[in-house]
Amino acid sequence: MLEKYIKAARGEVKAELVLKNASYADVFTGVCRHGDIAVTGDKIVGVGEYCGEREIDCENFTVLPGYIDGHVHIESSQLSPEGFASLIVPRGTTAIIADPHEITNVCGEEGYKYISVAAKSVPLDVFLQLPSCVPATPFETSGAILTGGDIERDIKDSAIFGLGEFMNYPGVINCDPDVIKKLEAAHAAGKIIDGHAPAVHGKDLNAYLCGGISTDHECVTGAEIEEKISKGMYVHIRHGSSTQNLCNARYMTDKNFRRFLLCTDDRHAADLKEKGHIDDALRRLVTDFGVEPVRAVTCATLNAAECYGLKFRGGIAPFWLADLVVVDNLKDFNAKYVIKNGKIVAKNGKPLFDATKRYLPGSVLNTVRLKRELVPEDFVLKLNGTKAKAMTIEPGGVVTGCEIVEVKSEKGDVVLKGTDLLKLAVVERHKLTGNIGRALFKGYGFKGGALGITIAHDSHNIILMGDDNAAMAKAANTLKEIGGGMVIVENATGKTHTLTLDIGGLMSSRDAESLQRDSRALIELAYSMGVRREYEAFMSLAFLSLAVIPKLKLLDTGLFDVEKFAFTDINA
After folding, report:
1. HEC-encoded secondary structure of 269-338
2. What is the Cα–Cα distance from 356 to 191, expressed in whole angstroms?
3. Do 90 and 119 form a contact (C-beta atoms < 8 A)?
4. Which tens digits make up the pLDDT trace of 29-46?
5. Per-residue pLDDT reduced to its tens digit, 259-275
6. Distance between CA atoms of 571 and 287, rounded to whole angstroms?
């Protein structure tokens, strides 16, 4: 094959595909250049003047390296890997660093194996990270546990690219034996380790990095970014559905920009369909935050490739992988053609590959299990006095707060009418424990029933919010009946509205088009029932049990203070 590349590079034989008259992003020097881009097999063989067996005139377009999402959970799209690829590949994404810890928390090893096999049928490179924290903390009930011994065995699998985000940063810093075993196993296998260390700094950060961890996608402040980059880390700029920190681009400079990557982390189907993927992050960075276009593209391509050791990826040069996206311009980033391994796989935003076939093993189905049918009394919230702790959440993020609120009670249950308070509940759905965590939430806005979802990071129990006990019970029972998904119980009409997520209670085996349409309709119904528009109606809800992000979170086992890493009483 090398001889074929070399002869095509010299022009002795025609290249198989030539993008003629192209303006292209030279991410190595930070400028745009002009020339024909010649492709043979899965490689770029040259840039200059070439003739091809097939030629595409790109005079009015710009060619970029295929985008690399530096950290993503496919499951958060609510799509199967095949459906996910059908939405992001036509947008220009040709590779992802995927951490399947959502489906693994529900289904164990069968979860990540499902992702690995399903992804093989689509033209998208899925570099699979073995989830490091299943469960994320020992304080909640998950569907599975991956011990240090499990990691030691599975990390050697050739299908595993690295070790997923290490959310248990206290375990690293305090040298938890099982945590150390996981880290050492990854190093022994020569695998990269992703990080997750919000607000960790100073000697604690030094200790965390001595675990051999390379990246972080949880930075908030400029000082945090500067410290982490100065200590050798790569920092992801995140553009998810609920978690967005593109504003961190303001901390990018001429000296440090090569340490920034782009990622989406968690992005649902409706946003992928309506707004886009990494392409949307690029247009926002350029248009809203004034980032120079080639610099933004470098973050989405070469930086990610170098961070993860993906040789000959992320640039346009001879012998580099022919993963390319042809866009209309460096402002809108609308993909006209997407080329994967030298083949045209999408045109004008539409896939040219079959994404309708589904690999769907029984091990990832029928995963919602309740000890018994729930009743309204299960959601009674009895308080000791007139003051209680209420959770809040910052718009556009996953960091929660704690506010002390005045409350009234009648007949042993908190009174919500006339307040901006709602009940929050987490119902265990894996091990038939019967656990129900109960709390108060302030400021979400929803009224007139209940809404619920079987996506509740990271153990993915049922999470419910509402102002009516009967509606909350009905919502939980309905989620069991449909095998997982999203639900709204609307008291005014007596109707129950659902969206089924049959794969682990997280993802749907349906096509992306119909799923995103029905998802959007359910989301809009939630907004019509009062959910504040600055929140993602369901995805924000899904993060309220994430016990590795400050400040206050609700688990199936009770209210949890993340900063103290201990349970706390709702009574204030």
Report:
1. HHHHHHCCCHHHHHHHHHHHHCCCHHHHHHHHCHHHHHHCCCCCCCCCCCCCECCEEEECCCCCCCEEEE
2. 33
3. no
4. 999 999 999 999 999 999
5. 999 999 989 888 899 99
6. 47
Ramachandran angles phi, psi of 493, nearest 5°:
-105, -15
**Phi and psi dihedrals of 82, rounded to 5?**
-70, -45
pLDDT in tens, 170-214: 899 999 999 999 999 999 999 999 999 988 999 999 999 999 999
pLDDT at residue 425 in the model: 98
Distance (Å, rounded) from C-alpha 450 to C-alpha 459? Answer: 21
Residues 6+ apart with CB under 8 A from 174: none
Could you give phi then psi for residue 489, rounded to 5 degrees?
A: -105, 120
Lookup result for tokens 């938890």: 176
Q: How far apart are CA 234 and CA 240, in angstroms?
A: 18
Burial pattern 200-218, b for ≥16 Cβ within 10 A else e, equals beeebbeebbebbbbbbbb
| Gap between the Cα atoms of 172 and 342, Å rounded | 42
Convert the pLDDT of each residue in 412-442 to its tens digit.
999 999 999 999 999 999 999 999 999 999 9
End-to-end CA gap in the chain: 71
Across 396-511, the runs of DSSP E, i.e. the strands, are 400-406, 409-410, 413-414, 421-427, 436-442, 449-453, 462-466, 485-490, 495-500
Query: Residue 394 — pLDDT band, cuts 50, 70, 90?
Result: confident
pLDDT (average), residues 126-141: 92
Question: Which residues, including other chains, have CB under 8 Å from residue 68's CB and lie 6 or more apart?
Answer: 93, 94, 95, 96, 97, 261, 278, 300, 301, 304, 305, 308, 310, 313, 314
Domains of the chain: 66-312 (3.20.20.140), 365-567 (no CATH)
* Residue 85: partners with Cβ closer than 8 Å, 6 or more residues away: 119, 122, 123, 124, 351, 353, 355
pTM: 0.91
Q: How far apart are CA 180 and CA 104, in angstroms?
A: 20
Q: Which amino acid is at 415?
A: V
Distance CA 18, CA 37 (A): 6
Q: Which tokens hold the place of 330?
A: 């460096």
Instruction: Kindly tell me if the per-residue pLDDT of 398 is higher than 90.
Output: no
Cis peptide before 203 (omega within 30 of 0): no
Residue 461 CB-density burial (10 A; 0-12 exposed, 13-18 middle, 19+ buried): buried
pLDDT of residue 98: 98
Q: Please give the pLDDT value at position 548.
A: 81
Q: Quick one: which of 395, 449, 455, 397 has its CA closest to 423?
A: 449
Q: What is the CA radius of gyration of the chain?
A: 24
User: What is the edge-to-edge ordering of all strands in the sheet holding 234-238?
Assistant: 215-216, 234-238, 260-263
Report the alpha-carbon distance of residue 22 to residue 36 in Å, rounded. 6
